[in-house]
Write a structure and sequence with these properties.
The complex is a heterodimer of chains A (454) and B (484).
Chain A: H1 8-18, H2 48-60, E1 69-70, H3 83-89, H4 92-95, H5 107-124, E2 128-129, H6 136-151, E3 155-158, H7 164-174, E4 180-181, H8 193-199, E5 204-211, H9 221-230, E6 234-239, E7 257-261, E8 277-281, E9 294-298, E10 304-308, H10 315-318, H11 331-368, E11 373-375, E12 384-389, H12 394-403, E13 406-407, E14 410-411, E15 422-426, H13 433-453
Parallel strand pairs in A: 1-13, 3-4, 3-5, 5-6, 6-7
Antiparallel strand pairs in A: 2-8, 7-8, 9-10, 11-12, 12-15, 14-15
Helix pairs in contact in A: 3-11, 5-11, 6-7, 11-13, 12-13
Chain B: H1 10-13, H2 54-65, H3 88-94, H4 97-100, H5 112-129, E1 133-135, H6 141-159, E2 165-169, H7 175-182, E3 186-190, H8 200-206, E4 211-217, H9 229-238, E5 242-247, E6 266-269, H10 271-274, E7 289-291, H11 293-296, E8 303-307, E9 310-314, H12 331-367, E10 383-386, H13 388-394, H14 398-407, E11 414-415, E12 424-427, H15 435-449, H16 453-457, H17 470-475
Parallel strand pairs in B: 2-3, 2-4, 4-5, 5-6
Antiparallel strand pairs in B: 1-7, 6-7, 8-9, 10-12, 11-12
Helix pairs in contact in B: 3-12, 5-12, 6-7, 12-15
C-alpha cells in the first residue's frame, strides 16, 4: 500500500493499545449480513510505473488541443496560461490545504481569496465578489436564486442567447420549485428587446443575459438594465472575463449581479471541469450571496488579517435556511485566476482581449471569403462568431476539418434547431494567422469534397 | 523561513508601468478597434488591476503559501474532511496534455480514451457502492445530494405521489437540509439517541406517506456505524420513501460494506475525500452519485455509454431530470479518483479503510484518557471527543485547545461540529498517518490540556496572527481592497 505507514508490528501494537484482537474486530459494529463477503470486483492494483503507462495509453487515445488546432469555445477556451500560474498553484501548501476553518494557519488562502474578490470587483465593476462557485452554470443558477430571494418574486427571464447549458441547469433546478422561466428569443443573435419588454412584469425577479452572448455577439446591457429595472427586476449578466480587458464593465452598465465562467483565467480545459464560477453583486445583496466570502479584520494584536465572513448565510450554520446548499468553492481555481490576472495586469489583459478581437475578425473575413459561408448574425462580436454554411452540411464539414487536424467549431443545431446550418467558431490569442488560414482553407476544401460527394 | 513581508497585498505592490506579461504583436492585419466594436461598448481604459513584475507575482504568492498548513506539510486531522495524502502521481497524470487539454465539445471520436476512463470509473463506483446506475456530473457532495433529491422528486412525481418532506438526522452535515429545501422539500430533523444513532422513537412518528427521502450519513459524523440502518430502510420503504446515503464517510467502509447492500437507494461519493483528490484550499470537489436501477433513468445527462466498443455521451434519456452542471463535470477530480482506485485495487481499497479505522481507534484509545469520547470506546474512521469537562473544570474550551494545537504544528480537529456534542472535537486521522504521528498528537493534546488556561485563551502564539476579530469582520464587512 503506497500511502499507508502501518507495519504488521505497528498494527499489533495499536491493536494491543485498543484492546482489540484483530483489525477485523474493529468492524464488528457492522452486522454480518450487511457486509460484503467477497473482494470488490475491481482491476488489480497498479504500481506507479504501470499506472503511468496505463494513463499514457488512455491519453494517447485522445486528440488534445496542443496537437489539433482548437477553434472551439462555447464557455471553455484555449487561452494561454503563463508558467507562473502552474508553478505557484502546484505548491502543496495551496492545493493540499482546505477551507480556512482555522484562520491562523490559513492566512495564505484567505488573503488569496480576498485578493481574488478584489480583482473580480476591479474586473466587473461590482461591489462584492464571493470566493467562487462551481462553474459558470452554477453561478448563473445561484444568481437567479439570489434575485428571487432578493425580490421575493418567482419569474426569471433569460434570453435564448445565454449559454444553453446554463439555461438547462436553471430549468432543472426550477422543476420542483415554485418558479417560472420565460425565455426571450434572439432571432438576430441578440435578445429581442421588444419581446423582453413584454416578458418582464411585476412578478419578474430578474433578467438574465450574457455579454458577449453564446453566439459571441455583444448585447445591449444598458437596454436590458432599463427594461429590468423599470419593473423592479434585477439584471444578471454573464460575462467572458477576458472580454473585460476591452469592454465596458457590466457594473458600469447597470448589472446587479455579474457571473462568469472563470476557466479562461488560467485554468486548463480538462474536458469541462473543474472550473471556476465567478459571482459578484451590488453591496445590498451581499447577505443573500451563496458561497464563501473572505473579509478583512484585525487579530488580538491589532494586526490586519483575513477570515471567512458573513458565515450566517451558509449551510453549516443555517442548515435549511441557508442562502444555498453550497459548501465547497473552487479555491484552487480562484487562486489560478488571481495569479493569472496578476501576471497579465491591466495592459496584458487588454492586449489579450485585443488579440482575440483582431484575430477573430480576421478569421471571419477569411471564412466568409468563400461564399458558401456567411456570418449567421450581423452583430458586433468579440472572440466567437456563428457562421452559416449555406450548403447546410455542418456536421460532415466539421468532421472533415477534424480529420485534417482542426477542431473548427461547434455545431449549433443541438441547442438551436433553427440554426442547424450554423456553427460557432472561437479564436483566442493563441491562434496564429497560419492556423486561421488553414481553418478557412480546410472549411473551403470540405465544401469541394461534399460537392463532389453529392 | 517565513517572510514577515508576506502579508502585503498585491495591490500595495502595484506600481504604474510594471508588467509581468508581454503578448505577441498581432500577426494578422490590424484593424481599428472602432471598426469592429461599437464605441459605446468599449471601455476607455483597461480594468484597474495591479501592475506588478513577474518576480513580484512569484514571491508574493509563494510567501502566501507558507502561511497555510496543508496535508503536504502538517498532520491535518480535520474530522469529516478526510485530509489524506494527495498522491503526486495523480497530479502528474491528470495533467497529461491528452487529459488536461481536451475541450468539452470535442467530437466523441477524439476523446475515446477519456470516455473509456470515465465509463470505467462509473463501473468502479457502481461496484464500490453496490448501486448500479451512476452519474459523474455533480460538482461537489452537496451538489450530488441536491441532484439525487431532484431525481427522487421526479420519481415520486411519476408515481403520482406528492411527497413534501425529507428527514435528516440532527448530526447530519448542514448541506443535507439545505439541499432538501433547494429540491423543493421541507427538511425535518430526526433526533439522535444517547448512543449517537438515529433515535427510532423520534423517527417513527415522523415517518409518514409525506416523507420522500430519509438522508442518513453512515458511518455517521460521530464516526459510528448505525447498525439500525437496515431496519430504518425497512421502515422508510414501508411508507414508500427512499433512503439517501451521504457518502462523506466512505473512507471507513471501502470493500467492507456497500451502501446498496445495507439499504441505500441513492448516495454520493466525495472523491476529494475518499479517493484523495486534493482539497485545493476549499475546492474543487466532485459529487458523483450512484442509484438503484429503478432510479437510473432519472440521472442527469450526460451519462457515458458504451456500445460496440465505442464510448459516447448519452443525452437522450427520456426520464432524465436534465442537466445539473455545464459540460461533463469535474473531470480533473474524477481522473484523480480513477488513478487512486487503480493504484489500490480491490485488496488495497479494503486496506485503506482498515488502516483508517485502525488509526482512528488507536488515537481514540489515547485521547479518551485526556478528553471524554461520549459515544464509546470504538469508532470507525473518526471520533468526536468533548472538551466540556475540561471547560467546566479549567475553563478551557474546544476552541482554545484547537488554537493551541496549531502552536505545536498540528492542524486542529473540526470543532463545534457535529452540533449534537457539546464542545465537540471531531478527529479524523486518515490511513495515511503513522503511529508515531498519532502518538505525538496525543502527547501534545495531553500537554495542552495541562497548560494554564490563560495561555490557551490567547493561543496560538507562534502563528503570524492570532484570534482574528470575526465579529468585527461580520459587522463592518470589508470584502475587497480599496485604494487609500
Amino acid at each position: 500500500m503506497p500511502y499507508t505507514f502501518n507495519t504488521p508490528k505497528d498494527q499489533q501494537a495499536m491493536l494491543d493499545a485498543i484492546g482489540a484482537g484483530s483489525v477485523e474486530e474493529l468492524f464488528d459494529c457492522i452486522p454480518d449480513d450487511l457486509r460484503l463477503s467477497r473482494l470488490l470486483d475491481l482491476p488489480p492494483a497498479l504500481g506507479e510505473l504501470e499506472l503511468t503507462q496505463h494513463m499514457q495509453m488512455l491519453a494517447a487515445k485522445n486528440q488534445h488541443a496542443d496537437q489539433k488546432v482548437c477553434f472551439l469555445g462555447g464557455g471553455s477556451y484555449d487561452h494561454f496560461v503563463p508558467a507562473v500560474v502552474d508553478a505557484i498553484a502546484s505548491r502543496g501548501e495551496f492545493y493540499t490545504s482546505y477551507t480556512p476553518y482555522q484562520p491562523e494557519v490559513s492566512q495564505g488562502n484567505l488573503q488569496v481569496m480576498f485578493e481574488y474578490q478584489t480583482m473580480i470587483c476591479q474586473l466587473t465593476g461590482m461591489d462584492v465578489s464571493n470566493a467562487s462557485l462551481y462553474d459558470g452554470g452554477s453561478a448563473a443558477t445561484e444568481a437567479v436564486l439570489l434575485a428571487m430571494s432578493a425580490t421575493k418574486r418567482s419569474k426569471v427571464v433569460p434570453a435564448s442567447s445565454v449559454h444553453p447549458e446554463y439555461r438547462a441547469i436553471i430549468e432543472t433546478y426550477f422543476t420542483h420549485l415554485d418558479a417560472e422561466l420565460t425565455t426571450v428569443g434572439s432571432p438576430d443573435g441578440v435578445f429581442d428587446a421588444s419581446e423582453l419588454e413584454q416578458a418582464v412584469d411585476g412578478e419578474t425577479a430578474c433578467v438574465l443575459i450574457q455579454h458577449p452572448n453564446f453566439f459571441g455577439c455583444l448585447e445591449d446591457v444598458e437596454a436590458a438594465a432599463t427594461i429590468a429595472h423599470a419593473k423592479g427586476a434585477l439584471l444578471v449578466v454573464a460575462v467572458d472575463p477576458i472580454s473585460l480587458g476591452l469592454l465596458k464593465r457590466p457594473g458600469d452598465l447597470g448589472a446587479d449581479v455579474v457571473i462568469a465562467e472563470g476557466q479562461s483565467l488560467g485554468t486548463p480545459m480538462q474536458y469541462g471541469g473543474p472550473y471556476l464560477g465567478i459571482m459578484a453583486c451590488r453591496e445590498q445583496f451581499v447577505r443573500r450571496m451563496p458561497g464563501r466570502i473572505a473579509g478583512q479584520t484585525v487579530d488580538r494584536r491589532n494586526k490586519r488579517c483575513w477570515v471567512l465572513t458573513l458565515q450566517t448565510r451558509e449551510q453549516h450554520i443555517r442548515r435549511e435556511k441557508a442562502t444555498s446548499n453550497i459548501c465547497t468553492n473552487q479555491g484552487l481555481f480562484a487562486l489560478r485566476a488571481a495569479i493569472y490576472l496578476a501576471a497579465l495586469g491591466p495592459q496584458g489583459l487588454r492586449e489579450t482581449a485585443e488579440l482575440c478581437l483582431q484575430k477573430s475578425h480576421y478569421a471571419i473575413g477569411q471564412i466568409v471569403a468563400d461564399d458558401r459561408f456567411e456570418l449567421a448574425f450581423s452583430q458586433p462580436t468579440f472572440k466567437e462568431f456563428a457562421i452559416r454554411d449555406r450548403s447546410g452540411e455542418v456536421e460532415s464539414m466539421l468532421a472533415d476539418a477534424a480529420e485534417s487536424g482542426i477542431f473548427a467549431g461547434i455545431p449549433l443545431g443541438k441547442w438551436y434547431p433553427e440554426l442547424a446550418d450554423c456553427f460557432l467558431v472561437t479564436v483566442t490569442e493563441k491562434r496564429t494567422k497560419q492556423e486561421i488560414d488553414s481553418l478557412a482553407n480546410s472549411l473551403s476544401r470540405a465544401s469541394i469534397n461534399s460537392t463532389v460527394s453529392v | 523561513m517565513r517572510n514577515p513581508r508576506a502579508t502585503q497585498l498585491l495591490f500595495e505592490l502595484s506600481k504604474s508601468g510594471r508588467r509581468a506579461s508581454r503578448l505577441p504583436a498581432s500577426d494578422v492585419p490590424e484593424r481599428e478597434v472602432s471598426t469592429m466594436l461599437p464605441a459605446a461598448a468599449i471601455a476607455d481604459e483597461a480594468p484597474p488591476l495591479s501592475e506588478v513584475a513577474e518576480p513580484d507575482v512569484v514571491r508574493h504568492f509563494t510567501n502566501l503559501s507558507t502561511l497555510n498548513m496543508s496535508v503536504d506539510t502538517h498532520f491535518y486531522p480535520l474530522g469529516s474532511c478526510t485530509m489524506k495524502h494527495n498522491p503526486k502521481r495523480n497530479e502528474r497524470l491528470a495533467g497529461l496534455p491528452g487529459i488536461a487539454h481536451l475541450h468539452p465539445y470535442q467530437p466523441e471520436e477524439s476523446v475515446q480514451g477519456l470516455l473509456q476512463l470515465l465509463y470505467d470509473l462509473q463501473e468502479f463506483l457502481a461496484e464500490i457502492s453496490g448501486l448500479p446506475a451512476v452519474s459523474l456530473q455533480p460538482a461537489a457532495g452537496a451538489h450530488g445530494e441536491l441532484t439525487a433529491l431532484m431525481m427522487a422528486a421526479a420519481y415520486f412525481n411519476d408515481l403520482g405521489e406528492k411527497r413534501t418532506k425529507v428527514l435528516t438526522p440532527d448530526s447530519a452535515h448542514g448541506t443535507n437540509p439545505a439541499s432538501a429545501r433547494m429540491a423543493g422539500f421541507e427538511a425535518v430533523t430526526v433526533k439522535s439517541n444517547a448512543e449517537g444513532l438515529v433515535d427510532l422513537d423520534d423517527l417513527r412518528p415522523k415517518l409518514d406517506d409525506q416523507v420522500g427521502v430519509f438522508m442518513i450519513t453512515n458511518p455517521s459524523t460521530l464516526g459510528i456505524f448505525d447498525d439500525q440502518v437496515a431496519e430504518i430502510a425497512d421502515l422508510v420503504r414501508k411508507q414508500g420513501g427512499l433512503i439517501y446515503l451521504d457518502g462523506a464517510n466512505m473512507n471507513a467502509i471501502l470493500g467492507v460494506a456497500r451502501p446498496g447492500d445495507f439499504g441505500a437507494d441513492m448516495m454520493h461519493f466525495n472523491p476529494h475525500k475518499t479517493f484523495s483528490g486534493p482539497h485545493g484550499g476549499g475546492g474543487p470537489g466532485a459529487g458523483p452519485i450512484c442509484v438503484t436501477e429503478k432510479l437510473g433513468g432519472y440521472l442527469p445527462v450526460p451519462v457515458v455509454a458504451k456500445r460496440d466498443g465505442k464510448y459516447s455521451l448519452d443525452c437522450d434519456r427520456s426520464k432524465t431530470i436534465g442537466r445539473v452542471r455545464s459540460f461533463f463535470g469535474n473531470v480533473g477530480v474524477l481522473v484523480r479518483a480513477y488513478c487512486y482506485i487503480c493504484t489500490h485495487g480491490p485488496d488495497g481499497l479494503k486496506r485503506v479503510s482498515e488502516n483508517a479505522v485502525l488509526n482512528a481507534n488507536y488515537l481514540l484509545s489515547k485521547v479518551k484518557h485526556i478528553l471524554p469520547v461520549p459515544h464509546g470506546d470504538r469508532c470507525m474512521h473518526e471520533f468526536v471527543a468533548s472538551a466540556s469537562d475540561v471547560k467546566k473544570v479549567k475553563g478551557i474550551s474546544a476552541m482554545d485547545i484547537a488554537k493551541r494545537l496549531l502552536d505545536y504544528g498540528f492542524h486542529a480537529p473540526t470543532v463545534y461540529f457535529p452540533l449534537t456534542v457539546a464542545e465537540s472535537m471531531m478527529v479524523e486521522p486518515t490511513e495515511s498517518e503513522s503511529k508515531e504521528m498519532l502518538d505525538a498528537f496525543a502527547e501534545v493534546l495531553f500537554r495542552v490540556t495541562d497548560e494554564p488556561a490563560d495561555l490557551l485563551h490567547e493561543a496560538p502564539h507562534t502563528t503570524t496572527i492570532s484570534r482574528p476579530d470575526e465579529v468585527q469582520a461580520a459587522r463592518r464587512p470589508v470584502m475587497k481592497w480599496t485604494p487609500a
